[in-house]
Amino acid sequence: MKNIFVGNLSFNTNEDELRQMFEAYGQVDRVSIMTDRDTGRSRGFGFVEMASNEDGEKAIAALNGSQIGGRTLNVNEARPKVERAGGGGRDRGDRGGRREGGGRGRW
Q1: N or C end of the chain, less CB within 10 A?
Q2: Whether 47 contacts 3, CB under 8 Å
Q3: pTM
Q4: Rounded to an integer, what distance in angstroms lies between the CA atom of residue 31 and that of residue 9?
Q5: Using CA atoms, how far apart are residues 57 and 83, in angstroms rounded to an integer?
Q6: CB-based contact 42:34 (threshold 8 Å)
Q7: What are the strands of the beta sheet with 74-77, ordered from one edge?
């Protein structure tokens, strides 16, 4: 299986269009375009999983630099997701009104 990153997508590109592009090079198992969790709008990138590594390599070679929706695609092998420390960036450290050591001075 080959997991492929597709970047610089037009915000109007949908998963069906992306699937059709990649199906020309082999069996596509899954397509997902990342969306903003608040607005539901495309974030301009997505992932395509292809059944065969060989087909995935052909698709990457053929589609990287191609145009869809007036934008030049960035297509390459997806890197493994890196887990972020602090629960996805929500841990902002101690920003309370007290200094370490119990001091009452101003920041």
Answers
A1: C
A2: yes
A3: 0.74
A4: 13
A5: 26
A6: yes
A7: 28-35, 42-50, 2-7, 74-77
How many Cα atoms occupy the beta-carbon half-sphere of 99 within 13 Å?
Answer: 6
pLDDT tens track, the chain, 107 positions: 999 999 999 999 999 999 999 999 999 999 999 999 999 999 999 999 999 999 999 999 999 999 988 899 999 999 887 877 765 555 555 555 555 555 555 55
Amino acid identity of residue 45, one-letter, is: F
What residue type is assigned to position 52 of the chain? Answer: S
Query: Are 37 and 88 a contacting pair, CB within 8 Å?
Result: no
> Which homologous superfamily is 2-72 in?
RRM (RNA recognition motif) domain (3.30.70.330)
100 token code pair: 């370490």
* Pairing relationship of beta strands 42-50 and 74-77 according to DSSP bridges: unpaired
The count of other CB atoms within 10 Å of the CB of residue 28 is 21
